[in-house]
């Protein structure tokens, strides 16, 4: 895949172990339906602000997966995790990817849909 000798030596890897985001609160209580709309809107528009579509797709898959699968996804896609909660990431070319907390976890003041 990469050039010979381009693999980082042991201990030089830029991978962080992922962790779940800290609990957070939306500025007003929202329903699961509204949260889904916010997430869909983010993922639909995010690629237009730069970066590679493949990385955005991998980040979405990781954000929607359990923590172990998310770790495998970001590792295999070559995503460099700056913040362990995935709010700030880079690809191997140095493009920056910022993820809002609402795509990574649910707020503490989520209202269950009736």
TrEMBL record:
Residues 1-31 are annotated as: Disordered. Residues 15-113 form the DC-UbP/UBTD2 N-terminal domain. InterPro entries: DC-UbP/UBTD2_N (IPR032752), DC-UbP/UBTD2_N_sf (IPR038169), UBTD1/2 (IPR039869). This is Ubiquitin domain-containing protein.
């Amino acid at each position: 895949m990469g050039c010979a000798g381009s693999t980082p030596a042991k201990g030089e890897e830029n991978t962080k172990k992922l962790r779940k985001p800290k609990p957070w609160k939306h500025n007003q209580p929202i329903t699961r339906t509204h949260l889904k709309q916010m997430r869909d809107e983010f993922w639909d528009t995010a690629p237009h602000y730069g970066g590679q579509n493949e990385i955005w797709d991998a980040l979405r898959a990781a954000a929607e997966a359990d923590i172990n699968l998310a770790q495998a996804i970001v590792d295999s896609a070559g995503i460099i995790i700056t913040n362990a909660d995935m709010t700030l990431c880079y690809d191997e070319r140095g493009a920056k990817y910022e993820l809002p907390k609402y795509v990574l976890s649910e707020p503490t003041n989520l209202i269950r849909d009736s």
